[in-house]
Model the fold of this input.
Amino acid sequence: MTAPPMITAPAAPLTYLDWNATAPLSPVARAAVIAALEVTGNPSSVHGAGRAARRLVEDAREQVAALAGVAPSGIVFTASGTEANGLALHQAPAGRPVAVSAIEHDSLLAPLGALPAARRVHLPVTATGRLDVTAAAELIARHRPGLVSLMLANNETGVIQPVAEVAALARAVGALVHCDAVQAPGRMACDLLALGVHMMSLSAHKLGGPKGAAALVLADGLEIRPLLAGGGQERRRRAGTEAVPALAGFGAAAAQALAGWRPAAGHMTALRDRLEAAALAAVPAATVWGRDVPRLPNTTALALPGVAAETQVIALDLAGIAVSAGSACSSGKVAASPVLAAMGAGRLAGQTVRISLGPTTSEAAVDHFLAAWIRLAADAAGPAVQVA
Ligand code: PLP
Done:
């Protein structure tokens, strides 16, 4: 019998630069999850154990409501940002078209694809990655959609979208307006009223909370149709026993994001700007997408001409650095990122990696990335790339 392979610990700690995929669980969220795991009751039970669980859910609801700038009754907890987006889309009035930007997350684009072509309107973006507001105004006026959805900040480029402007255009034709704000908390303000939208999606694991908790935030008084029928949880808007520990962690992370996003944004902007300046100085042929428009403070989409994104991700992984490819992998086939394709990135869409930082990212982590990426550019790049 041959001995099983030895599993050895990595030589160095991981440099984690993939916060937009999922943020590390914050210590306050971890503590809240662990404490809530000890609470036995079902929040719908009337006895003391049930009431203790209910208290945790309602505390979390208040914390998430404060982050989103709404009353606690406006929070509908779901299991994921994907579910929150699906629930929002479910509110589209029958028979009227649905308009979404071309750079939305798959959880909006995939269900939209199931609608008849006549009911789908894609709002284009410019080469900067920002919605083309002139084109959107024309399409909204022409198609008079019943629901319009525009994300607050793009998950691949970090580009901040003109949500308030588009919300006004959509309201003018009587449309419901939804905003996928999953990437915003902890990085920028995400106040539903200021955005002028009817619905907004949030997800705990993007802001330091656990996976498996999220919310659809509703404007005051908005009634919605549930996706899941069953129990009367969440005021009959989402059936299913609440995931009490995950929601407790979501609440703690939301409170932390609300209290700390401004200093965190300053820290991340400084690191991000240093990373981009050093990368572009070393590799002048490289491109940072959306550099000239407002972006999240933590996100860099960096193209290295001639080097496939997958090659970059694997080489960086071998160096102990976690980043994402700006392209999606399905059924073993590598597809260029639809977001970058919508921006007209051409070939570079498949040669772009996303580096996303967090409030605890260090200078050393950025230096580690830069050293490895610049080495990779020098080693692997074709003649298109000159390393200074
Ligand atoms: N919307 C955006 C912009 C995202 O980046 C993601 C996750 O990557 C989602 C929605 C989906 O959230 P979840 O992972 O909670 O389903």
